[in-house]
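W.,

You were right to be curious about this one. When I first looked at the sequence I had no strong expectations either way, so I just let the prediction run and decided to look at it fresh. Below is the sequence, 359 residues in total, followed by the output.
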Amino acid sequence: MARDLTLWFVMHVLAPRKEIIDIPGYLATTFSGKGKGIYLREVLFPESLFVNIENYFAEENKLKEVYFAAKLFGYKHGLISHLPTLKNGRKEFEIGYKMFNKYVSTIFARRLDLEIDYSTETFHYTGDNFIICRKNGIGVIFTGGMAGLVSYYLSKNAEAKHVYCQGRGDKLCEWISKPLSNDTSLFEKISVSPDYIKINKNSITAKRAEYLSLKDAINGRLFFYKEGTLSYKNERHIIWEANIFYFLDRYCNAKLLFESAYNAGMGIARKNNWSLELFRLYLSLAGVGLPFFAENNKKVYVYLKGYPWTELAKDSTFAIWRGFISGCLSAILDRRVMFNAYSSSFGREGVFEVVFKEQ
């Protein structure tokens, strides 16, 4: 099973270059269950980052915020990926969701199965070795995303419940999702900007020898892929479309996002004993643009050239990546680094750029 999954990933995703992983500072996918051309900007990040976010929000009894943000993201992901819905007909829909679930299994889990009761429109997912929840028994980010995706599939407003979880001691993870109403007003403002592909393609910068791509890291055996798991020094990593960060940023408590990400950054930097150079290389293969570090009056700032852009960028505080990079640099520089100031703009040739600064 695991060997078949790895082979499928290589033949259907990596070999035909459905995953663009050979450009420093940049990750994208053109994979779609419908076979229609798409171009999604992606980001790679450690599993512990989202584990921390869920844990912090659980402690403050604010998981509903995370679920809601993830639900909107799940709907947007279906839309932006051009996944078939039941309105396309049952045959086309089943071909599409089965292909998509196979793709999800190559990064997010060892296995993801789906059974559908069409008479009640109930979706029953079963997963093995799933991201995030295997560590904390919560998994609300994926559960919310599932609710949004099922809403998209059915053109209704669905909810999802994580009924069994390996992180809580169960044999497998299981989710149940079904529609609560036909009212889809929640999703009315979710759309796909015609600028999304153009701006993110503009963010491709020339390959530079001083930076690493994810492909470089895999070929150099810094990252390993096996059985649906992408890992770096025993730290599992996730590749996800960049909108997930923007939705969490818009609908969740910014202070908790920053603090949880800061803690995760401190942890991974200390665990791996990163130098500033190693951290720069890590960021370049994570797909958040080409990183540049500078210091002025003993204040550090980070410039990310080619940061992933979506329609939500205009009002974003970039809390998660500001917090994560602040935490990493605090561990590396052995002093507290807090990027409380930030800005974003379009540079030369339409490249989206983000700057984080100490005040």
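Here's what jumped out at me. The longest strand covers residues 173-181. And, maybe more interesting for your project: The chain has two domains: 48-187, 195-357.

Coffee later to discuss?

I.
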